[in-house]
């Protein structure tokens, strides 16, 4: 009897994720019944949001993973056995597969993916990072040519796409990153106007020099030390898209937020968003992103880890900044 492995959440992290909150368990590969099919998961997407799903917070946009359950994760897989007429063997599917090597599905929550699109392009651009970047930029920030945009976690999966799309629209784009290597990648390879390292003591001075006309649009992915200096340079009628606050995900208490006084004085619009609210737009966004990719307007890079047994540890790379590009586990 053939078996497969699955990563279960058995405890909740106190702050940073530790190995003992997961357990890798083995089970027998199930057989699909009528109306079902068996998916072999080939790639998992590791995302900062997973840290939130591991907490006990019931008051968020999505319920927490229950203790003992397979850890929630999105992934890409292939149908290897089917009793469902719409999902023949060989169909590629994308969705919330969970951190496991196989799953049985009736198609609920899974999207078919054209076989010719490389797995890494799907996970780095066409799926969550791309739709998040697209929605946050076009719908929330509503960019106009000539404006100055600052994006944090600028070399990451979401930030690198935001910056490239904004450049293609004719904006001045400044990216905030945590290393010299990432600064070089976004300026030399992706064409950002400037890159700043938030670890630098004189970050605020560097930001002022890189944004001589102030900041019109702020795509916030991190929170942390960069937030206040960026907020202080927002222009009148500036817009802020609050996409993520990864600097806070491992903390018990949130950092103090920006003063509301500047929101009045500068007449700022600040909007948080989460993509599960916008599933109905994923197909349209995916088409637009696919078009940009085909035209060579978007570059991406991936950081690939091999083997499900290494997935739990790999999530930590997102929090240390050691991932260089979209973090993926390949089975
Ligand atoms: N709202 C939504 O629906 C939605 C959807 C997807 C993602 N997100 C959010 O978008 C953000 C980026 O996600 P991603 O998938 O693109 O991840 P990512 O940028 O590929 O990886 C995370 C990066 O965050 C940076 N980082 C980690 N800890 C930090 C800290 N304390 N201070 C400053 N930067 C820190 C690191 O880059 P450096 O080396 O540059 O520090 C790290 O590489 C996350 O906050 C995520 O939760 C939101």
TrEMBL record:
<dbReference type="InterPro" id="IPR041694">
    <property type="entry name" value="ADH_N_2"/>
</dbReference>
<dbReference type="InterPro" id="IPR020843">
    <property type="entry name" value="ER"/>
</dbReference>
<dbReference type="InterPro" id="IPR011032">
    <property type="entry name" value="GroES-like_sf"/>
</dbReference>
<feature type="domain" description="Enoyl reductase (ER)">
    <location>
        <begin position="18"/>
        <end position="329"/>
    </location>
</feature>
<protein>
    <submittedName>
        <fullName>NADPH-dependent curcumin reductase</fullName>
        <ecNumber>1.3.1.-</ecNumber>
    </submittedName>
</protein>
<dbReference type="GO" id="GO:0016628">
    <property type="term" value="F:oxidoreductase activity, acting on the CH-CH group of donors, NAD or NADP as acceptor"/>
</dbReference>
<keyword id="KW-0560">Oxidoreductase</keyword>
<dbReference type="Pfam" id="PF00107">
    <property type="entry name" value="ADH_zinc_N"/>
</dbReference>
<dbReference type="InterPro" id="IPR013149">
    <property type="entry name" value="ADH-like_C"/>
</dbReference>
<dbReference type="Pfam" id="PF16884">
    <property type="entry name" value="ADH_N_2"/>
</dbReference>
<dbReference type="InterPro" id="IPR036291">
    <property type="entry name" value="NAD(P)-bd_dom_sf"/>
</dbReference>
<dbReference type="InterPro" id="IPR045010">
    <property type="entry name" value="MDR_fam"/>
</dbReference>
């Amino acid at each position: 009897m053939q078996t497969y492995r699955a990563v279960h959440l058995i405890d909740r992290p106190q702050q940073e994720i530790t190995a003992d909150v997961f357990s890798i368990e083995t089970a027998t590969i199930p057989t699909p019944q009528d109306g079902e099919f068996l998916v072999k998961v080939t790639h998992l997407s590791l995302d900062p949001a997973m840290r939130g799903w591991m907490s006990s917070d019931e008051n968020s946009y999505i319920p927490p993973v229950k203790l003992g359950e397979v850890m929630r994760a999105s992934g890409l897989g292939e149908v290897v056995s089917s009793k469902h007429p719409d999902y023949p063997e060989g169909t590629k599917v994308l969705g919330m597969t969970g951190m496991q090597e196989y799953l049985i599905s009736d198609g609920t929550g899974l999207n078919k993916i054209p076989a010719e699109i490389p797995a890494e392009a799907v996970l780095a651009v066409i799926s969550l990072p791309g739709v998040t970047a697209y929605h946050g930029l076009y719908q929330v920030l509503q960019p106009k040519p000539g404006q100055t945009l600052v994006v944090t976690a600028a070399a990451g999966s979401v930030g690198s796409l935001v910056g490239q799309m904004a450049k293609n629209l004719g904006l001045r784009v400044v990216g905030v990153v945590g290393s010299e290597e990432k600064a070089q990648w976004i300026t030399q390879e992706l064409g950002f106007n400037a890159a700043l390292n938030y670890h630098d003591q004189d970050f605020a001075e560097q930001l002022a020099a890189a944004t001589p006309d102030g900041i019109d649009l702020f795509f916030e992915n991190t929170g942390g030390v960069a937030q206040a200096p960026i907020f202080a340079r927002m222009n009148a009628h500036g817009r802020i898209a609050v996409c993520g606050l990864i600097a806070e995900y491992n903390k018990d208490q949130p950092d103090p937020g920006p003063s509301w006084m500047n929101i009045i004085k500068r007449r700022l619009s600040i909007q948080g968003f989460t993509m599960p609210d916008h599933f109905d737009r994923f197909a349209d966004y995916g088409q637009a992103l696919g078009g940009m990719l085909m035209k060579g307007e978007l570059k991406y890079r991936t950081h690939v880890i091999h083997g499900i047994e290494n997935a739990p540890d790999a999530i930590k790379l997102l929090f240390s900044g050691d991932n260089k590009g979209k973090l993926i586990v390949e089975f």
